[in-house]
Amino acid sequence: MSTSSSLVYLIALPLFGAAALLLGGRRTDKWGHFLATAMSASAFGVGLYQLSQMLARPTEERAVTQKLFSWIAVGNFNIDAALLLDQLSICFVLLITGVGTLIHIYSISYMAHDENRRRFFAYLNLFIAAMLLLVLGNSYLNLYVGWEGVGLASYLLIGFWNQKPAYATASKKAFVMNRVGDMGLSFAIMIAFATLGTTTFAGIADVAPRASEGALTAIGIMLVVAAAGKSAQFPLQAWLGDAMAGPTPVSALIHAATMVTAGVYLIVRSHFIFDLAPTAQLVVVIVGAITLIFGALIGTAKDDIKKALAASTMSQIGYMILAAGLGPVGYAFAIMHLLTHGFFKASMFLGAGSVMHGMNDEVNMRKFGNLRKFMPITFVTFGFGYLAIIGVPPFAGFYSKDAIIETAFNAGGLKGILLGGAALLGAAITAFYMSRVMILTFTSKARWDDEAHPHESPALMWVPIAILSFGSIASGFLFTRGHALVNWLEPIVGGHEGNHEEFLAPMVVSALALTAVAIGVAIALMKYQFADVAPVAPVDVSALTRLVRNDLGQDAFNEAVFMRPGIALTELAQKADESVVDGAVRGVGRLATGSGSVLRRSQTGFARSYAAFILIGAVILIAGIWVVTQ
Description:
Number of helices: 24
Structural class: mainly alpha
Helix content: over 70%
Oligomer: single chain
Number of strands: 3
Distance between the termini: 96 Å
Order of helices and strands: EHHEEHHHHHHHHHHHHHHHHHHHHHH
């Protein structure tokens, strides 16, 4: 394994930008957004340089490390603060810094009139730096530092407009639910050290084949809990929709390039554990399958354009998690869909921001319609992302999602049929609700009021969207040409040798997937394009529709199962503290004051009383001596 001395710049550049803007204060207001954008772009440049260096080396020497300093040295527990750049982490470095830089550029115009723009860009840089540390750490402990940094940055950005109580509540909800996942990662690290004696990726990979399956299963399940929290997967998905409270560029950054991808990275990076723990691997598959359907169903009932896209993120990450539970080639397809999703989801979120910019910050799609005539660039670029996410060839999602569906069917037997069927059902629902978004926003009859004056966004906003849209077209073909991405990741996660025999031919899978897409699109056209759409959502709906509108009861479930019992337990503990702990302390005080009150009565102030006490005491003393001496 080679060493490199320049990896630290990947993190140091955006971290410097964040520190300069936060510590520089108002003096940096006029140019802070340019500095932050330059730092992110510079980190992308360093990433490209590292990729060129990696390509110039033989395959077995492409992974590089850089030790920063000795971090923890206690007995046999020695951990260095060190960075690892290999074929897996470079994919994330380029995604984070590349897409992140385009989001920075977009934000210059989008946040132009916000008086706290400088602070917003500082938080964006902090987010980029934390995510880079997460994917570059060479151990679970180093990863954990970045993991927590991402949680902090997301809290700051989701609640950026915290003067609105609902937005502050949304950021707190995301922060608290992510702490649940963080406990899973903490337990995984502790179990790994206790049973395997190390927390580095290389160290665990070396000893895992000799470890007990029980220990590996425990570590794997805790890692799934961590991934579920950070990537908004079942059952820790409830925070993602509310995270739309932040400015739209934050939504693009979280959903496309940073936070929600961290869970997928964690599972793929931990492949050496899941490959040897089939029970934990099965849990990964189940979580992914449930979530891809769960998120898709929620997306069908959202009128808020950003929340509809958020539900689609939940579902698409579910596809990635599903693939990551399907063995060596599944890891590669999970990363492929993650990368293609980074392009088309970022373009659609930024496109949603463009729509909001032209519609006075309105987010209700029922108050849109016919915007293609007034926002043609946004319509075309958003349309490319739409075609990519539903899986129409030759757009990127067609290649990556079809590969996952095919791999799911190839799992074999009833398992393969169930997983492949779930993936196909998810594709049909995705086509329906994303067509609904497209129709309600761009192609149906106009439904806005007289105060709206839709118009195209400035070039500083639509140019980054156009670049991302190009990625929505080209990336899938580039990743699959000659099995490019599978071969690139094979030294890290393995290759085709982990596959089952082919269950369905690729052409059959593609035909099934396109049929599912066509059905979903046709239903959306009949329901929204060729029928009148009410500007206000109907209230007289079925119980199932109400359930889906309420996110399938996830908040109600969490409140009933966790929050209310938690409050009751807290109140019980408070009462126990007041009656037992505080009661004991107060009892000592009462005993002292009571005793003092009794003794105080003997102090009358009369000399004859004191003489009588002395006489009585003397008599008692003499009597005692007499008894003892007899």
